[in-house]
Every structure is written in C-alpha cells, then in structure tokens.
Amino acid sequence: MVAGLSALTWLESLSLTFICEHELPTGTYREIRISPSHTCTLLPALTDLHFLGFPKYMEDLVAQIDAPLLESMEIALFHK
Known about the structure:
Blueprint: H1 2-5, E1 13-17, E2 41-42, E3 48-53, H2 55-64, E4 65-66, E5 72-77
Parallel strand pairs: 1-3, 2-4, 3-5
C-alpha cells in the first residue's frame, strides 16, 4: 500500500481505518501478512495522518514513509 502512495506527492491528509476482526462475521477473517519493503516513500505534502487499526500495521506504515511537513497525527489502536 505504501508503494502506491508514492505516486500521490500532492497528498495532504491521509486517514486509514481498519475493521477490528471482532466486528466481522465468524469465519470471514484471515490475516494476510506481506513483509514490508525496505524502501522509504516520500510524501512531501502530507500534513495530517489519522490511523485506526492494529499496532503492527502502524509500525509498518511509519517505518516506510517520510513526511517532512507532518503537523498532526492521530492514532487509535485496537487492543486484543
């Protein structure tokens, strides 16, 4: 997903919201884990980041983006 964001150099605000697996009907949740790439994506216009999800996804996202103008970040994490 982060690699796809690299084309959005004009992106100023990003909001990512994941569905908690406890809210899904039984049997529909399967985790798919893709190893993060080791490249860093520059988002030069990003000023606001909002994230609702799992800590492991947040860690992967933060490790892969560079947002030099980031002013505001709101994070809410699911707790098992």
